[in-house]
Each structure stands twice: as C-alpha cells, then as structure tokens.
User: Fold these one by one.
Assistant:
Number 1:
Amino acid sequence: MVKFSSLALFSLLPAALAAPGQLFERLGAPSELDKRAGTFFSNWHEGSGNFQCNNGGGGSYTTNWSGQGGFVCGKGYSPGGRRTVTYKGTYNPKGPGYLALYGWTRSPLIEYYVIDSYDVLAPGEPWTKKGNFTFEEGSYDLYTSTRVNKPSIEGTRTFQQYWSVRTEKRVGGQITTGKHFDAWSSVGLNLGYHDYMILATEGFTNGAQASSGNSNITVD
C-alpha cells in the first residue's frame, strides 16, 4: 500500500481505482499519517465521491463515504506481526469494500487481508481457494491471488496476496494474527518480515458499482 515511518509511502503514481488490494495505485493525494496512543493511522481517498475519515483519540477512527472512487482508512501497528488485535465498533457498507486487518511483509513481499465483514466481495485478481480453518475465533476460507507488475511497498513488483475471509461476518472481536499466519503457512503461503498492519475500512468502485457507508471503529 516504503514503510509508514518514512512518511513517503503515498508519493507513488496515481491511477484509477478498480479493485481491492491496489492501494499503491490509488494515490490522488498524500495520505495523512500519524501516531496516537501507540496506534498507526492512515487516511487515503481518490475520486469524485465524498470520502471522510476522522482520526479519533486513542485507537478510534470514523468514516463516512459515498460515490465514485475509493478510500482506505484505518489504525493499527508498525510493524505488524503476531499479536491479538481487539477491536469494536459499527460498520454499515453498501457495495464493494471490506472491514479487514490489512498488512504487508517483505522477503517475501506479501500483501494480506483478514476480512471480518463486507457487503460485496469483488477481488481484483482471480482468487484461488487454498482451504479453510476453524478455531475459537471463527471459521475462515483461505485464498491467494497474484498481482503482476503492480506498485507495492517495494516499488513495481509481482507479488502474492493472502486472504482469510470470515464465513460468518462480524464487526468487533479478536483477530489473533498468528493463527492466520500459521493457517496460511500450512497450505504453503509463507510470510516474510512484517511491515505495517492496520484494521481498515475500505470502499471502492468496481465497474459501475460504487460503494457507500459508514464506520466507527476502535482498535484496542
């Protein structure tokens, strides 16, 4: 989506918003980056729609969005890694988008999502299902996809995306990241050294279908 601490992450080439997992392509303006109460905040939007994201106190943020284009906003950690992420709040989407734990690793370069809720799933590249797993936090289907010669935290590269998609949607609870990392590893999807990780609200335009909604999320 260069590492947050460089404050240069969002100085890459702009492009039209088409699908999820393309944050490095969706750069109409610099992102707002901040640290508050040990959490990492990112706010980006592009297009002709109305995209509002407000950085609240501690681990909180709110969003309200509608129209053509897209946005990604969230709070989390830099670096990410094995931790239990606890969050709560409200999420009311219509159209393409996700409420997800989102992050990157290096060596290998991987973009990953743990999707807890959504209205319309609309992956940018074909997903290949790799299995599913269930543990005390819920059941998830596992997928992978490949981005070819696309912008990333290491410039234009070809890299894989890993996905855990919750089978019963929820808003709030615990995401034990190590459980997902281990589940991916068990089907041959290995991660590298962790870069940033955020609990993100994302909305985007997919073809003629725009996204709208609102969220109020707090990451503990």
Number 2:
Amino acid sequence: MPHQDTAADGAALDHPAPPRVAVVTGGSRGIGREAVSRLAADGFAVVVGYAGNREQAEAAVEAVAADGGRAVAVQADVADEQQTAALFDTAESKFGGVDVVVHAAGRMHLSPVVDLDLAQLDAVYRTNIRGSFVVAQQAARRLRSGGAVIMFSTSVVGLAFPGYGAYSASKGAVEALTMILARELRGRDVTVNAVAPGPTATDLFLEGKDEQTIARLAAQPPLERLGTPADIAEVVAFLASPAGHWVNGQVVRANGGIV
C-alpha cells in the first residue's frame, strides 16, 4: 500500500529542523572570516562577532546571505563580559540557541622579551587570556548538547620563535584553559578543543614582515608553503561537525608538518 502523508508528516515538512548556530568571534577577517563562510556552507546560522570593523563584519554577513545562509554581525569586546554576554544573547534571540563557539579573536605584538612594552603585554593578555576566559564562560553556560567550543592557540607555543614571547605565553594559557574546560564540561556532551595554526597568510601574520622573512617561514613546513585561512577553517569545520565530536580536550597543530 503506498505511503500517504499524515498530519505528522505534513508538520515535519512544514517545519524543518532549525539550523545549528555558531558564534564566531573575530569573524570579520582572517581565519575567523573564513570560518564564518565555511560554517555557513555547512548550514550553520552564524553570529559574526567583531571588535571594531563594522564594514568587514557586514561584508561577511552579506556574503553568507548571498549564498543563501543566515548571519548577523554583533560588535563586542571579547574581554568585556557584558558585551560578550550580549553577543550570545543575540545568538539565542535571533536563531534560538548556540551550538558551536569559535573563538578566533586575538591580538599579537612581537618584541624580544627584554624590550617588551608592558602596556603592550597587558593589551595582549587582556584580549587573548581574559577574552578567552570570558568567551569560555559564556560557552559553558549556554551551549546545547552536542555542541563544540573551538579555541585558538598557535604552533609557536612549541616552536618558540624569538620575538613571540608575549603572544606565545598568552596562547599557552589558552591551551591550559582548553584542557581544563573540556574536563569541567564532563557529562554535557560538549567538546572543547584548540586549533594551533602555524604560519598562515593572514593580515595579522603578514603585518610587519619583509618578503625574506615570509619566504623563510613558508619554507619551514614539509609542504613548503604558508597555510591559508581556508586550511584552518577546514579544521574548524571538522571539529564543529558530528564527525569531529570524538576529538575532545586536544590541541590540533594545523601547521603543515612543522616540528
């Protein structure tokens, strides 16, 4: 006997499951911007968090909409708990909840330790450490079952490049936070991981480097090139997906094989 639609069937057809929802800090440029596009392509509704560049954030939203997706831009200083809470409030009010948090916002200042301006150190730590804790708190309070938190470290934590003392130390703190938060969320069915890119062709990485330095860094991986934001966004998408849900409490060093 052929199947006939029931009222329940019709309801299911009329009311498809709502999309999963991602909050991406630092979503207006670089790796964060690429993560916005990649997650939207996977069907996520995306909240694009940005610090100051509204034009780039709105461009990210428009690009998602042009491809048939849903996104909204929200300005927030990740180190400010009220602004970050409002970022998550928007995800809940606009899209119904939060399933994935990608914390790509960060600050980098390069200097030998002996010459480091401590005001710059404070700025790096405010964004990279305090900001990570503030975002982690909101994620821990709000993520739905099956969710994922994806933090950002750097392969420089292991590579120990001179000049990266402040930045690398701040990201070492992020790695410690990642491991502990993964264990604190036991029983919640929420994963917590960090992605640690190697040299990646973003504005943040390329700023202040001459062509010789860039070429030297590009030659380090066995793959003999710089990473791209798209390379890193693929790792983010995997960790955000059901396929990556058995990976938990890890730092994924996405660097082309630099050791």
